[in-house]
Structures are given as structure tokens and as C-alpha cells.
Design goal:
Number of strands: 0
Structural class: mainly alpha
Number of domains: 1
Strand content: under 5%
Number of helices: 6
Low-confidence stretches: none
Order of helices and strands: HHHHHH
């Protein structure tokens, strides 16, 4: 079980690094003025998205194995706990955020993205807030 938990933590940390960095690249892209800067940032975003896909799926798959290793045959009762349901709702929101980042990237590639760098600075804070709440739910199990 410790190996599965270690893998899960590794994938979560890696996924969050991507979730924090891609919107930061969006901030820079929204501020970029030259075509070469935009092309560089588009390339960085494209490569980061490949890693994001891998780390998100690693997170999800390791989570399934982790729940089963923790709960065993009582997994159904485990996943019905209030804190766990709340955590899964937040993880689903993060997955939605993840794919919304991909849509934003495509808008930058197509030249249709019109939001300001200030908007992206606020957008970049969403996964940090969710991470804080998820950590609290996992550690405190308040309900």
C-alpha cells in the first residue's frame, strides 16, 4: 500500500505542477507582443500539455488502486463518506479545469484568445484553492 500511496502522491504533485505552470504560461502569452514570443510560449504549452495528460491519468489510476488498497472489500462504504464525496467533486472540478486549460491553449493557437493577463493571474489561483481544501478534507475528514 505504501508504494501505491507514494505513486499517487508523486502523480498528484506532478499534475499540480502542470496545473500551476500552464496558466502561468497563459499569463505570459497574453502579455506577449511579438510573434516569436507567442510561438515559443505555444510550444512550451504544447509540451506541458503532454505531461499534464500523463500525470492526470497517473493520478486517477493510482487513486483507484489506493482506494481499493485502503478499503479492500469495503470500498463502497469508503467512497460514500462525506469527505470523500466532497473530495471527488473537487477532483472532478480540477479535471474540468484541466480540460478547460486545453481549450484555452487551442484559442491561443488559433489566435482567438482575448482575455487579459490579469484574468489569467486570477484563473491561475483556482487549483491552489482547490488543493488547500482537498488537503484539509483528506487530513481532517471533517464529515
Amino acid at each position: 500500500m505504501l508504494m501505491i500511496k507514494s505513486l499517487h502522491i508523486f502523480f498528484v504533485v506532478s499534475w499540480f505542477a502542470c496545473l500551476f505552470y500552464l496558466p502561468r504560461l497563459f499569463v505570459n502569452h497574453a502579455m506577449a507582443e511579438t510573434g516569436s514570443d507567442k510561438a515559443l510560449l505555444t510550444g512550451l504549452q504544447t509540451r506541458l500539455i503532454k505531461m499534464m495528460r500523463f500525470t492526470m491519468w497517473g493520478t486517477v489510476i493510482s487513486a483507484v488502486f489506493l482506494v481499493y488498497s485502503l478499503a479492500g472489500g469495503a470500498w463502497w462504504a469508503y467512497v460514500q463518506q462525506g469527505w470523500f464525496v466532497a473530495k471527488m467533486v473537487l477532483v472532478a472540478a480540477l479535471i474540468g479545469y484541466h480540460y478547460y486549460c486545453f481549450a484555452i491553449h487551442h484559442q491561443f493557437v488559433n489566435g482567438t484568445q482575448k482575455r487579459s493577463h490579469v484574468w489569467f493571474r486570477y484563473f491561475n489561483e483556482i487549483p491552489a484553492i482547490i488543493l488547500l481544501v482537498v488537503i484539509y478534507l483528506v487530513i481532517a475528514k471533517p464529515f
